[in-house]
Amino acid sequence: MQQHEQLMRNFSSITGCLDQEKCLNYLQMANFELESAIQLFFEIEIQSQQFVAPIQKVNQQEPQPSQSQRRQIQGNFELEQSQTTQELVQKYKNYKESKLDEDPGLVSGVWKIAKALFTKNQNYGEDFQKHIQSKKVKIEIKFEMGSFQDNIKIASDKMHPLFVYVHDVSCLKILQTMFQCKSFVSIVNRYFLSYAFIANKDTLAQLPTQNIEIPSILIYRINFIDEVSLVKQIKLFPQSNFEELAVDIKSIRSAISKISAQEKLAKRLVDSPEQIHQSQIDRFRQKQLDMEIRRQQEIEQREREELLQKQDFEYMMALQQADEKKKKINDEKLKQEQLIQEQQEEEEQRQFLKATLLSGLPQEPKENCITIQFRFFDKVITRNFNFTDKIQFIFDFVMCQDDQLFLNPKADVDLIQNFPKLSLFDKKDMLIQEIFNDSTGEQLIILEKE
Asked: Mind listing the UniProt keywords for this protein, alphabetically (predicted)?
């Protein structure tokens, strides 16, 4: 069933028939022989067109190409006929003549074919797949087993080009990158028969191509005179862009389909010239041209849509980055403003506390008092206190002083009596007379705590 579906796809791509039921009917009438089905299609469709056309002209007015367009179509067809098709016709004639010279009889010809079919070759495809699986790489492309000779014949029978991937054991990263490109994998699996092997002296000897750079992709086909021809060799690198390569190999596949159609036409012109009519050629060429135009329009439309999607995505990403940058700037600005406000509030509270402490100090006495000299880091200040004042008032007086007197105006302080050594920090609730009971003058050092 899967083989029939593949034949239907090939039939549709060559004839341009999009009706799947009609494709299946022609293949069934030709016993699923693709070339016979295609020939049958053109014969029947052209004949039916010749009889139906006059009636259609009465009931339906189809748009006709302008005179300049008809001249261009006719000119393109004549150019094609005069160059490509005629060259292929002559090439096929030469091939048939050489085959008659080389094959003296039917028996020897059959023997050569049988000998080629039953020749056993090393299964390098299996060696490759075992190697890849041993590296725990998931194989995405449907690589075939067998040898190059096996697979080029299978590809020819299926009317597919042969996609050959050649690498050595150091190119595993490139293969993984290839498998990760979904578009590349999809195109290869759909339009090609794939084969791969590990490059060495024995495996490279099976190819008809010399001086192959490793790793590479090689695309082969068997043309209408049974020649194995290398269509394209693509050298791979670690930085190869497989999205771009997917587009390239799809265009290569289209070019192969076009030349294959021209080869079939040339064979029919030589083998069955009585079945070829100018109207058939015109219809075939016009259908191929229309198909190519539609295919190109679809590609351009898809590319436009992908470009618009890419531009929309890049625009959204730019907006998102701009919003994130703006938010980051605003957050930083808000954070700085909050920090400044907190510092201002803290400074206002500290100044308010200093003013409160200053207003709460008892009035400085003139007599019956103790004179205390305060030594700041670069200045000395003197003030009188009552003996009945608390030590706390001394601390309050110090804390009310100008910020310039302190190394760190926000630090806590201790008052130190130099001789005898004495700290007043834990004696704030005591009276002055309890500490300095027999003195009228003292010197205290301001100690700023960290």
From this structure: Coiled coil
